[in-house]
Amino acid sequence: MISPTSDVVFVLVHGAWHSSWHWALTQRSLAHLGAASVALDLPGHGFDAPLPSGYLLPGQPGLATEKSRLAGLTTEECAESILSTLREVRRHHRTVVLVSHSAGGGPASLAAQTAPDLVDRIVYLSAFVPAGRPCFTDYLSSPEQTATVRGQGLGIGDPESLGAFRINPVSTDPAYVEELRRTYYDDVPAEEFARWHLTLSPDLPSAIPTTPVHLTADRWGRIPRTFIRLADDRAATSAMQNLMITEADAFASENPFTVHELPGSHSPFAARPAELAAMLVSDLH
């Protein structure tokens, strides 16, 4: 059994187009339960996220063609930012739980593979698990994902030319904004989503979903791990979540996932942060 909650810190890694501040409600709920937490910004995200030059101008000139300033960012750099945080919190807490959401699962997995002694448990919140297939795009293109996924029309421009997977969170097209909500925040009312979507950044560096992350059973595979499945996720289908769990368990069969499930969409940190925090804490025992 893992140590009491007061000895634990949760390190929270966001997903595509998100940032540390999206964890704020979950962190507040964790604090109410006596648990410490640190949310970090992956490089190129948060307040430091570079924007295309026309992003906030009328008509958004060049949005579909201007190369992203994040085009050269690597998955290794993202993993190193996580490792830096893990090293810091390890100095003060006996138990470190690494939590990743969505595309953040790739850099988080690489960090855990690189320094497994810094992580006592790794939690995937409907997040990419590269154990079975090393690239997130390998799962995103699987029949389990493509058959029912939403949001396929949200992309702006050509990712290969841009060096990023680009969306338009400040779009003035109500249909586009509603599709963004239905894909990622389906159980968040439209009036509340108006606050959430404006905090998203437009560019996800291409490296994050396309760079292979190679794991080994004796390093990553030895870390106790949990998958929180989101039952009504429209961005990462239940079938794809189950596929990643099954393939990871086959890869590291001596240490299978503990699997929990939350109702609702891809963003429980917005829709049900108290339930999410309670599940993270209950998973310690």
What level of helicity do the residues show?
25-40%
> What is the CATH C-level name?
Alpha Beta
Q: What is the total number of structural domains?
A: 1
Share of residues in strands = 5-15%
> By helix and strand content, what is the structural category?
alpha/beta
List descriptors.
285 residues, alpha/beta, Rossmann fold, six-stranded parallel sheet, two-stranded antiparallel sheet, 34% helix, AB_hydrolase_1, Sec-Metab_Biosynth_Hydrolase
Structure, described:
The chain has 285 residues and is of the alpha/beta class. It has one domain (5-282): 3-Layer(aba) Sandwich (Rossmann fold), CATH 3.40.50. The protein contains 12 helices and 8 strands. A 6-stranded parallel sheet has the order 2-1-3-4-7-8, sandwiched between helices. The chain has a two-stranded antiparallel ribbon with strand order 5-6. Helix 1 crosses helix 12 (273-282). It is globular and about 50 Å long. 44% of the residues are buried.
In terms of topology, how is this protein built?
Elements: E1 8-13, H1 24-32, E2 36-40, H2 75-90, E3 95-101, H3 105-114, E4 121-125, H4 136-140, H5 143-146, H6 159-162, E5 164-166, H7 174-184, H8 190-196, E6 203-205, H9 207-210, E7 225-230, H10 238-251, E8 258-262, H11 268-271, H12 273-282
Parallel strand pairs: 1-2, 1-3, 3-4, 4-7, 7-8
Antiparallel strand pairs: 5-6
Domain AB hydrolase-1: 10-278
GO molecular function: hydrolase activity
Keywords: Hydrolase
In short:
GO terms for molecular function: hydrolase activity. The protein is α/β, with parallel strands linked by helices.
